[in-house]
Each structure stands twice: as structure tokens, then as C-alpha cells.
Amino acid sequence: MKHQTITLRVRYEECDPGGFVHHSNYLTYFEIGRTEFFRSSGGRYRDIEASGWFVVVARVDCRYKMPARYDDEIQLTTRIVNVTAAKIVHEYEIHRDGSLLVAATVTLAVIDREGRLQRVPEALIQ
């Protein structure tokens, strides 16, 4: 299964007053993972959007196991687990020092400028 792991550092503004990463910021981490995964394959979302297609999140299933904290170095692994004519499914895991913090599945769809569902472009499949 094709995957990529990148390292991120938790920034102060991503945390709640207790010093834990706010749950909503994990979605941003997943977006970074998707973008860098696509970029590592030679793609750019900017080019997809210039073609009139937009990749949108259709579903998120996120399981929080342990919190990340300010200044932690975390490893984000992104995997493509399923591609159909209408969707792309990614799985994510975030670890710190080998311990699983968060696991998630995100389903993406492709729409045109009018918001109509489109087939997944070949550029995203490759």
C-alpha cells in the first residue's frame, strides 16, 4: 500500500489553553499530509483546481487515542486505501515516539466549479 510519512512540529497556536493540540487541528495535519503526498507523486492541487476540479472532504472518521502537546515532534503517515470513480479514501496515523495518538479515515470527492460531483481525474489516481 502506497504511503508517505512526514514529521511535523506542534506549534503553540495549535494548542488549547491546557497545551494539548485542539482536536480541529488534526484535520489541518491531514490536509498537509494529503498535499505533501500528492506533491511527492509530482502533482499539485493548484493544477487540479486550475482545470476546474476541486477536491472536497465528504467524510471524516477520527479516533483520538492520546493528545499531542505543544512542541512535540509528530510523525504523520498518509495512505491511499481506496480509489473509485467517485471517491478517494485516505487513512492517517499520527505517532509520537512510536505511540499512536490519532487514527483517521477521510473520504474525498471531486466537484466542478458549480459543485456537481465529478469522476476522480486520472491525475489524482496516478
What would you say this structure looks like, in words?
With about 130 residues, the protein is α+β, with helices and mostly antiparallel strands. The chain has a single domain, classed as Thiol Ester Dehydrase, Chain A. Helices cover about 20% and strands about 45% of the residues. Strands 1, 2, 3, 4, 5 and 6 form a six-stranded antiparallel sheet that branches. About 15% of the residues are buried. It comes from Allorhodopirellula solitaria. Pfam families: 4HBT_2. One of its GO terms (molecular function) is fatty acyl-CoA hydrolase activity. Belongs to the 4-hydroxybenzoyl-CoA thioesterase family.
In a nutshell, what does this entry contain?
The protein is α+β, with helices and mostly antiparallel strands and 126 residues long. It has helices at residues 25-40, 45-50, 122-125; strands spanning 3-9, 53-64, 73-83, 88-96, 99-112, 117-118. Strands 1, 2, 3, 4, 5 and 6 form a six-stranded antiparallel β-sheet that branches.
Topology:
Elements: E1 3-9, H1 25-40, H2 45-50, E2 53-64, E3 73-83, E4 88-96, E5 99-112, E6 117-118, H3 122-125
Antiparallel strand pairs: 1-3, 2-5, 3-4, 4-5, 5-6
